[in-house]
Design goal:
alpha/beta; about 30% helix; 12 helices; seven-stranded mixed β-sheet
């Protein structure tokens, strides 16, 4: 195993697998290792027996059905159908390994505690019960402005320098009240907290446009989700890397990592390999990361769909921070047998948020109240880590932990940031020339 690679990747979480796939497609010689015997790392999908074992909860009860019917995500997130992850899947042609199903609905919890469907266009705003009579006119004008907004056409900017003017000023210009600002900022722009209000408006307008474009694709909701769970995603990118020469080794305990003579040396089971640089999740470099928060996730098994969700088989619900007196939002994602992740007539609802007190699970009470009866729940509190440096000096490029959001945009932004730090260039999300070449060769072979 005494060999040199362009890159060694440690950990098979989704971020590491995407980067491994991207670098392999570009012709880099990649070695990908994981101390675990399965793909996905923190973002794996487990069957029923595995999750009971992981949480030390004994054996599953018979009423939950067969273990093999379950693919339970440890870090659940939905995919915006026009978002960055879909662009990465298309860029690498990984879509051929995956099947997706649209999520039935997207809801928000306003004051009063009853969830309501999220309006995302001027037409929906006009009929939404979320908005009062006069507020509907303001919201409709705002959504028309967002839909017409084009960064390259100043005529669509309503006289505002949107790269400088804070978002709070734009909401005020359209006369939107606090309730409307809350659902637009959190359920459409998908901001984690209210910090965005003081930042330039351009980013928030782009985010709302993305939500509306994703919604327009399938009408029911802006989100899609892979059949058999998110564990399929890292495996698909691992397959891509292998096609382009990447080498994978699971069950490899990492005994030593050293930085010598401008190279990275990794020792596993007595063998040492070298590389020009290394990519890893935070667990491999505790001395190169800092803890900047904690995330609580509660995986709840239900026997009924979430009340007031129109009996949806899958749904996302956002509880904006202000509605429950918090600094960050609470997210609920529900999926079911329609996505091949649990037994028939069972539902998986996963609640997540950023921890703000010394009693994390009590912070989830507003979400639990929305779920109805819970059969079983698995609760975890994990530390959120981010790298201390950008990796350009020591050639150790480390990802951040997965945040509490119920979508993949922040995950993909981290991937793109790591890619730029490694290569010095932006990741351009059009189909890669090497992928196009392979597709042409495959089509020519098929015709013969």
């Amino acid at each position: 195993m005494d060999e040199h690679y362009d890159c060694i990747v440690l950990g098979t979480g989704l971020k590491e697998c995407i980067i491994s796939g991207l670098l392999s497609v570009e012709g880099k010689k990649v070695l990908h290792m994981d101390r675990n015997g399965y793909y996905g790392g923190e973002s794996a999908s487990l069957n029923l027996n595995q999750i009971f074992e992981k949480f030390n909860m004994g054996k599953p009860t018979d009423n939950l059905g067969s273990s093999r019917d379950y693919n339970i995500d440890l870090i659940p997130k939905f995919i915006l159908s026009s978002g960055l992850l879909v662009k990465m899947l298309l860029h690498t042609d990984v879509t051929r390994y995956l099947d997706f199903k649209v999520v039935d609905g997207s809801y928000v919890m306003p004051k009063g505690g009853k969830i309501q469907k999220v309006p995302a266009t001027d037409t929906e705003a006009a009929t939404s019960s979320l908005l009062g009579f006069f507020e509907k006119f303001s919201a409709k004008k705002f959504f028309v402005f967002v839909q017409e907004y084009d960064e390259a056409k100043p005529a669509t900017h309503q006289g505002l320098n949107l790269k400088q003017v804070p978002m709070r000023h734009v909401f005020k210009k359209f006369g939107l009240n606090d309730e409307s600002v809350d659902f637009i900022g959190h359920a459409l722009a998908l901001h984690l907290n209210d910090d965005y209000l003081e930042k330039p408006a351009h980013d928030t307008l782009v985010r709302i446009r993305l939500y509306a474009e994703s919604l327009a694709r399938y009408q029911k909701s802006p989100y899609i989700y892979p059949l058999y769970g998110l564990g399929e995603l890292p495996q698909a990118f691992a397959r891509l890397s292998a096609i382009y020469g990447g080498t994978y080794m699971l069950n490899k305990p990492i005994e030593k990592i050293a930085f010598e003579d401008g190279k990275v040396k990794v020792t596993s089971e007595g063998d040492t390999v070298t590389a020009d640089f290394i990519v890893a999740d935070p667990t491999y470099f505790p001395d190169k990361v800092k803890k900047s928060g904690r995330i609580i996730r509660s995986i709840c098994l239900l026997s009924n769909p979430i009340p007031n969700s129109n009996n949806a088989e899958s749904v996302q619900i956002i509880i904006p921070q202000k509605q429950v007196g918090r600094k960050s939002d609470i997210y609920i994602g529900e999926i079911s047998s329609s996505h091949c992740v649990c037994a028939k007539n069972k539902y998986i609802a996963i609640v997540s948020t950023t921890v703000e007190t010394d009693q994390p699970e009590r912070e989830l009470e507003p979400a639990y109240k929305l779920l109805g009866p819970i059969d079983t729940k698995f609760v975890s509190v994990t530390d959120f880590y981010e790298p201390i440096s950008d990796g350009t000096s020591d050639k150790a490029f480390i990802s951040t932990s997965y945040d509490a959001t119920s979508h993949f945009e922040t995950t993909c932004e981290d991937v793109m940031d790591i890619y730029k730090r490694i290569t010095g260039k932006d990741l351009v999300l059009t189909t890669h020339p090497n992928i196009l070449k392979q597709q042409e060769e495959a089509a020519a072979g098929h015709q013969q």
